[in-house]
Write a structure and sequence with these properties.
It is a single chain. With 404 residues, the protein is of the alpha/beta class. It folds into two domains: 100 residues, Roll (Urease, subunit C, domain 1), CATH 2.30.40.10; 275 residues, Metal-dependent hydrolases (TIM Barrel, Alpha-Beta Barrel), CATH 3.20.20. 34% of the residues lie in helices and 21% in strands. The protein has 13 helices and 18 strands. Strands 1, 2, 3, 4, 5, 16, 17 and 18 form an eight-stranded mixed sheet that branches. Strands 8, 9, 10, 11, 12, 13, 14 and 15 form an eight-stranded parallel sheet that branches. The two termini are 14 Å apart. The structure holds N-(iminomethyl)-L-glutamic acid and fe (iii) ion.
Length: 404
C-alpha cells in the first residue's frame, strides 16, 4: 500500500541533497519514504493525503525523557516559582511514589505521556529508568519502557537512594553489578547523573565502563546544576550525547566540538527550574552538533512538547528556527545514533509532522499553539479527523479512477 502526501507548501527534509522544498510531495511505501520531489511531478499511489499547503517536517526525535514514574511534584514547582532553588533532591520523592506503584499505574501514565508526545509530533522517544533504584525496580521500569520504545536507558545512577545515603560507593557497586545485570536485557543505553553532590567523575566513569562492558552504549547527564567534569567524562567515554550542558567552560565547548558527542540541550528544564539557558550559540558557532529534547519528568521539566522546546531555543537560546527544528529532529537522531529517522530522504522511516502552518518558523513564531495537525508514524496517519482539528488532517483518500 503506497500513500502520496501532496500539496506540501514547505517540506523540511534535513537531507543535504534535497534541502527545503516548496510545492512538494512525497510517497510513502511500507513505512518508508519511497519518493520525494516536486508536487507537479508526483507519481501515482494507492492513496492520497492532500495537506493543502501545509509545512511538513520529520517527526520529532525526543532523545531524553524520564517517562516511567508515579506521582506529581506540582507543589515543588510552585515552591520554586516562589523562590526555592532546584537541587535534584526531589528525585527521591518520585522514587518513593514509583516504587509503591504497580505496573498498571506506571504503564497507564507512560501510555498517556507517549500519546501526548505523539499528538505533538514526536515519533521517536528515548525513555530512561532512574525512579526505581533497586535491582527489581530498575529492571521493572526498563521492561515497561521497552513496551513503548527500543530507545531505553538504564539510569540506576540517577541519585543515591536514601537507604544508601551513608555508603554511596556501595550503591555504585550495586549499579555496576547486580542492578546492571538485571537491567541490561531491557536497555540500549547507560546514563549517569554526573553532578556535584550526586555522582562524581570517577563514579560516573565506573558506571559507564560497566555499562559498556554489558553491551550498553554511553550517554550522560552533564553540567546541569553547575560546572564540573561531566562533559569531559562524556567525551572521553565516547558518549553519543552529553545532556543538559547548562554550565559549560570554553574547554567543554571545544571538547564537544572536537568529538562525536552530541550536545543535547533541554530548555524545558531551565524553564521549569528558572535557570539560565545553555549557550547554544557558542556550541553551534564552535561546530558542535546540537540536539533539543524535552527531558520530560515530573520534577525539572514536566513537558512532552518538542514545539515548546523549539520556541524556547529560538527565543531564549538564540538558535534560528531552522537550527532548532534540525536539532529537534536530525540532532535527536544523531544523539541516538540513528540514521533511519530525523530526515525525509528516500529510505528514511516515514515519520512526519504536518503543521497547520505554512512554515517551520511558525513553531517558534506561534508559541503555545498546537500546530501539529497530523502525524505519520511508520507511514500511518495517527490523528483521526475526530480529534476535531482543521486543515491537514483531511482524510486520506483513494484516488478516483483517472485521478492520481
Ligand atoms: O534530567 N537531572 C537529573 N534528572 C532529571 C530530573 C529528575 C527529577 O527532578 O525528578 C533531569 O532534569
Ligand atoms: Fe534528564
Amino acid at each position: 500500500m503506497s500513500l502520496l502526501v501532496r500539496g506540501i507548501g514547505e517540506l523540511v527534509t534535513n537531507d543535504p541533497a534535497l534541502g527545503v522544498l516548496h510545492e512538494a510531495a512525497l510517497v510513502v511505501s511500507d513505512g518508508r519514504i519511497a519518493w520525494v520531489g516536486a508536487d507537479a511531478g508526483a507519481p501515482a499511489a494507492d492513496e492520497v493525503l492532500d495537506v493543502g499547503g501545509a509545512a511538513v517536517l520529520p517527526g520529532f526525535v525526543d532523545s531524553h525523557t524520564h517517562l516511567v514514574f508515579a506521582g506529581d511534584r506540582a507543589a515543588e514547582f510552585a515552591a520554586r516559582m516562589a523562590g526555592q532553588p532546584y537541587t535534584g533532591g526531589g528525585i527521591r520523592t518520585t522514587v518513593a511514589a514509583t516504587r509503591a506503584a504497580d505496573n498498571d499505574v506506571l504503564r497507564a501514565r507512560l501510555a498517556q505521556l507517549r500519546r501526548e508526545a505523539l499528538r505533538q509530533g514526536t515519533t521517536t522517544l528515548e525513555v530512561k529508568s532512574g525512579y526505581g533504584l533497586t535491582v527489581a525496580d530498575e529492571a521493572r521500569l526498563l521492561r515497561l519502557a521497552r513496551e513503548v520504545t527500543p530507545e531505553t536507558t538504564f539510569l540506576g545512577a540517577h541519585v543515591v537512594p536514601v537507604e544508601y545515603a551513608d555508603r554511596p560507593d556501595d550503591y555504585v557497586d550495586l549499579v555496576c553489578g547486580e542492578m546492571l545485570r538485571a537491567a541490561a536485557p531491557y536497555a540500549r543505553w547507560v546514563d549517569v547523573f554526573c553532578e556535584r553532590g550526586v555522582f562524581d567523575a570517577d563514579q560516573s566513569r565506573a558506571v559507564l565502563k560497566a555499562g559498556i562492558g554489558a553491551g550498553l552504549r554511553p550517554r550522560l547527564h552533564a553540567n546541569q546544576l553547575g560546572p564540573g567534569p561531566g562533559i569531559q567524562v562524556a567525551v572521553e567515554a565516547g558518549a553519543a550525547s552529553a545532556d543538559h550542558c547548562t554550565h559549560l567552560s570554553t574547554m567543554d565547548i571545544e571538547a564537544l566540538a572536537g568529538s562525536d558527542t552530541v550536545a543535547t540541550l533541554l530548555p524545558g528544564a531551565e524553564f521549569s527550574t528558572r535557570s539560565p539557558y545553555p549557550d547554544a550559540r557558542a556550541l553551534l558557532d564552535a561546530g558542535a552538533t546540537v540536539a533539543l529534547a524535552t527531558d520530560c519528568n515530573p520534577g525539572s521539566s514536566y513537558t512532552s512538547s518538542m514545539p515548546l522546546c523549539i520556541a524556547l531555543a529560538v527565543r531564549e537560546m538564540r538558535m534560528t528556527p531552522a537550527e532548532a527544528v534540525w536539532a529537534a529532529t536530525a540532532g535527536g537522531a544523531r544523539a541516538l545514533r540513528r540514521t533511519d529517522i530525523g530526515h525525509l530522504g528516500v529510505g528514511a522511516r516515514a515519520d512526519l509532522a504536518i503543521l497547520d502552518a505554512p512554515s517551520h518558523v511558525h513553531l517558534a513564531y506561534r508559541p503555545g499553539v498546537p500546530l501539529v495537525s497530523q502525524v505519520l508514524h511508520n507511514g500511518v496517519p495517527i490523528l483521526s479527523a475526530a480529534s476535531g482539528r482543521s486543515g491537514a488532517e483531511s482524510a486520506v483518500k483513494r484516488p478516483e479512477s483517472g485521478e492520481q
